[in-house]
Amino acid sequence: MTPMVSASVDTAALHHNLQVVRRWAPRSRVMAVIKANAYGHGLVAVARALKSADSFAVARVDEGLTLRQAGIDTPTVLLEGVFDREQLDAAAAAHFELVVHTPEQIELLRAAAAGIRFKVWLKLDSGMNRLGFKGGAFDLALAALRDLAAVQSPVNLFTHLASADTPELHATTDQLARFAAATGSLPGERSIVNSAGMLSFPQAQADWVRPGLLLYGVSPFADSIGADYDLTPAMTLHSHVIAVKELVPGERVGYGGDWTAARPTILAVAAIGYGDGYPRNLGSGAPVLVNAERAVLAGRVSMDMIGIDVTDLRRTPVLGDPVVLWGAGLPVEEIAVWADTIPYELLCGISQRVAVDLR
Ligand SMILES: Cc1ncc(COP(=O)(O)O)c(C=O)c1O
Fold first, then answer.
1. How many Å lie between the centroid of ligand 1 and the Cα of residue 31?
2. CATH number listed for the domain at residues 235-358
3. What residues does each domain of the chain span?
4. pLDDT tens, residue by residue, 18-35
5. Is the pLDDT of residue 2 over 90?
């Protein structure tokens, strides 16, 4: 049975995008960021498709364990580290690498059972004020980690950029200067940049780049799309037409009757809504592809349905015709602008009832 709504994920696109990332950062290894169900694309399936990445990064222990349970043994970094003894033991058994960003995490490592040894990434808070040690606390944390049997030598060095997607701001150069000052000539591998940082600050690519969004074929910048960087969108969100009707001028569409036909109108109803993760705040006029032609949203997004003004299409749609909400032919970056959000949120936000289908 064909699902009414599906997100098809193009594995060839994932491969291609990884190659593009390698071209942009030829001297760095690639830590592929596949947290949050690989940005909605399917954690295990994406990990299998990107098995030539040098390592994976996930946010949480359970995401990493899902990879191991699927037989994926690629080195995997826990971007938030571990928070209790149980997580530490699970992370040790799974051979995860740990980001360390609090004194409590150092104490957990101090109390680790004999024989446990982690590759550790010490995180500097270089200005984002989210995770990491600042200034003198960073030096103390490094000294403490160097003394611990549970920590492999050397300790590796990590930070995260807050504003790499707006490179004209000084924030990133300030962060890079703080990272350089704190890490100087210390031994250890370094990892600084996400997708936007990798593109805008090639001098900061260091030993490991940490792209997420680029791998999915999407631009991290507000004024461009993935194709501008030779990327191919990996996810296409599909639905179908489930009703077609004719409206006379003055008739209203959807909850609240927000949209009024200004002319004799052909309206297609498609099976997609906020219950699938299609954003409710998309306004009338947002683009939708019906039979690969651009049409526009008419009226409010419901839980399971949308109305589409298809009057101007070359062929009047019939029941079952394909509808694309974003992806191939309709950049998710464009939909994000209409929805006043970022592509990350749209991709991560597709709901459980959407069948993710790897091709
Ligand atoms: C620490 C860290 N590094 C890298 C990334 C990847 O970011 P992007 O998808 O913008 O490349 C993230 C994602 O949020 C992150 O939290």
1. 10
2. 2.40.37.10
3. 11-220, 235-358
4. 999 999 999 999 999 999
5. no
The answer to whether the CB of 79 is under 6 A from ligand 1 is yes
What is the CA(194)–ligand 1 centre distance, in A?
5
What is the C-alpha to C-alpha distance for residues 344 and 39, in angstroms, rounded to an integer?
7
Q: Rounded to the nearest whole angstrom, what is the distance from the C-alpha of residue 187 to the centroid of ligand 1?
A: 24
The rounded mean pLDDT for the chain is 97
pLDDT tens column, 134-175? 989 999 999 999 999 999 999 999 999 999 999 989 999 999
**Cα separation, 307 vs 170, whole angstroms:** 44
Which of 3.90.800.10, 3.20.20.10, 3.30.450.20, 3.20.10.10 is the CATH number of 11-220? 3.20.20.10
Residue nearest to atom 14 of ligand 1 (CA): 212
Residue 229 designated active-site: no
Characterize the bridge pairing of strands 265-270 and 235-247.
antiparallel
What is the value of pTM for the model shown? 0.97
Count, residues in the chain: 359
- Catalytic residue check, 255: yes
Ligand 1 atom with least separation from CA of 211: 11
Residue 190 CB–ligand 1 contact under 6 Å: no
- What gap in Å lies between CA 96 and CA 2, rounded to an integer? 38
**Mind spelling out the 3-state secondary structure of 274-339?**
HHHCCCCCCCCCCEEEECCEEEEECCCCCCCCEEEECCCCCCCCCCCCEEEEEECCECHHHHHHHC
